[in-house]
Write a structure and sequence with these properties.
Blueprint lengths: L7 E4 L5 H12 L3 E6 L2 H10 L6 E5 L5 H15 L4 E4 L5 E2 L7 H29 L2 E5 L12 H20 L6 E7 L11 E2 L8 H11 L4 H13 L4 E4 L1 H12 L4 H14 L1
Parallel strand pairs: 1-2, 1-4, 2-3, 4-6, 5-8, 6-7, 7-9
Helix pairs in contact: 1-7, 3-4, 4-5, 8-9
Length: 272
Amino acid sequence: MSIYRDKVCVITGAASGMGRELARQLSEQGAVLALSDVNADGLEETRKMINAGNRILVDVLDVSDKDAVLAYPAKVEAALGPADYVFNNAGMARVGDVVNTPLESMEQVINVNFWGVVRMTKVFLPQLLQTKGVVTNISSLFGLIAYKGQAHYCASKFAVRGFTETLALEMEDTGVGVCCVHPGGVKTNIARNAVVDYIPEGISKSEMDDEFDTLAITPVDTAVQIILDGTAKRKRRIVIGKDAKLASFFQRVMPVRYQKILSFYTKDKQAL
């Protein structure tokens, strides 16, 4: 029997990508689902994929809206019971360098990717302390390494990592599990859906998307299986994909020079 059967699982960013796949796989394992996203149409598509026998709560929720997040846990508990697992998956990507990207764009990425995680973690901790549950926060490969044109995204995901690792230390004697996930290239539409604030001349958005598709080596269903397995085992760090594991290794052993090593690796991947 699955560890997730009859457990209340909260998933943000459930309208597409890994969030949708988390919902699908947890549904198959008999979980009780609280799904949210800012994309109402995408949420409805996800809901239609879910086994009708499961209890499901579906809400349009913007994790950057503090008041909405504050009110959300009470709604979940009233409808489904206290949360056993919280998967903070909602996130957004924007492309642009530091010089040319508007400050407001950077603030938006931080507000969704970092503060959304902090808010959701904070407001659900009372329920998780009650159920001795687990919070799983989705960082990124870019929470382990830097990448040109992604300073705001990297900053948000490094922050998620720091927040989550610190929380894990604080929760050691409480019975609450804390997991931080670092996916490498996963086959989702996050890159294609990214807002472009600035890209250098001579490079098109379609070329950038094609580059990501080349580097996205992990199928989304495989990535989610790894997340669910790691969450069930309460692993503090869950690294997904050979690319993320390789990058993590080089960053640790060559903290300054790793970018040059990885640039050769990505060029080779694009040539395949």
